[in-house]
Design a protein that fits this description.
By secondary structure, the protein is an alpha/beta fold. It has 2 domains: about 1-105 and about 215-295, Vaccinia Virus protein VP39 (Rossmann fold), CATH 3.40.50; about 110-215, DNA polymerase, domain 1 (Orthogonal Bundle). Helices cover about 45% and strands about 15% of the residues. The termini are far apart. The mean pLDDT is about 90.
Length: about 300
């Protein structure tokens, strides 16, 4: 099963160079995905090292466990916001490093049944955790117009938020909007046929995904809990893929640095090398920010 999906961990070498300061340390992989970063990190860590891997996606978690196949990895079907509790349960004083990769895994994007991608028609789902009752279909078919406008504007930064919300309201009166293809068709109707690097539905899909998974709230929560995850001398790295997340991380890291308890490892976001972007288009929007907890 796990061999069906290819997965290229983004900026793995650069992140490892910055994050893996203790070869026998404890590390948190906040979004395990298909295990690409964890597998690479373990190839550079010693026999006593440990990685705690978190993911809301139970299917991806199982595949990651199979792919990494290393006793140094412990997996948790949970949000990375639960890292402090898990570290405490294991009597670990904190992590030497923590990575929070806020992108989607290849499995999620390429699997039509998950409903994340505009490219493949499938159920309008978009949930990381299948146990989450709030899917993209629930939002599109039941939320009032004002709420649709809000998420399209705030989470999708969609300039035509009112027109798209109105088109969704009109379409759902004719019957439920149940597939990604149907939603894509509705948005194409608003924009008309046009060329361009990105499909006109891209921002709407982003908004729905963020809303049903409460992504920004989750990021804010984990940034507030970094002191309970990373021990003094340890580092936290965050890999973002759109401006909303990057802005949150940038501002929070600046606030932490002002307290004197944290130090910015890179003042400006790092980006993938040209060669990596050429080989993996999904790396093109990645931004990496790293902060270190100052030793007491």
């Amino acid at each position: 099963m796990s061999q069906e999906w290819t997965h290229i961990p983004i900026m793995a070498r650069e992140i490892a160079d910055i994050l893996l300061t203790n070869p026998e340390g404890v590390y948190v992989d906040g979004t395990l995905g298909l295990g690409g970063h964890a597998k690479y990190f373990l190839s550079r860590l010693g026999p006593q090292a440990r990685i705690l891997g978190f993911d809301k996606d139970e299917e991806a978690l199982k595949m990651a466990e199979e792919r990494v196949n290393d006793p140094r990895l412990s997996v948790f079907h949970a949000s990375y916001t639960e890292a402090p509790a898990r570290l405490a349960e294991l009597n670990l004083p904190g992590a030497d490093g923590a990575l929070f990769d806020l992108g989607l895994s290849s499995y999620q994007l390429d699997n039509p049944q998950r409903g994340f991608s505009i490219m493949n028609n499938g159920p309008l789902d978009m949930r990381f955790d299948r146990q989450n009752p709030l899917s993209a279909a629930v939002i599109v078919n039941t939320w009032p117009m004002a709420e649709l406008e809000r998420i399209l504007k705030d989470y999708g930064e969609e300039r035509n938020f009112t027109k798209i919300a109105l088109a969704i309201m009109q379409a759902r009166r004719q019957g439920p909007i149940e597939t990604t293809g149907k939603l894509k068709e509705i948005i194409e109707g608003v924009y008309g046929k046009r060329g361009g690097k990105t499909h006109p539905a891209t921002q709407t899909f982003q908004a729905l995904r963020i809303a049903c998974n409460r992504e920004l709230e989750t990021v804010e929560n984990v940034l507030s809990a970094l002191g309970d995850i990373v021990k003094p001398g340890g580092r936290a790295a965050v890999l973002t893929f759109h401006s909303l997340e990057d802005r949150l991380v940038k501002n929070r890291f600046k606030e932490l640095a002002k307290t004197g308890g944290w130090l910015l490892v890179n003042k400006h976001a790092l980006a993938p090398q040209y060669e990596e972007v050429r080989e993996n288009r999904r790396a093109r929007s990645a931004k990496l920010r790293v902060i270190e907890r100052v030793k007491l």
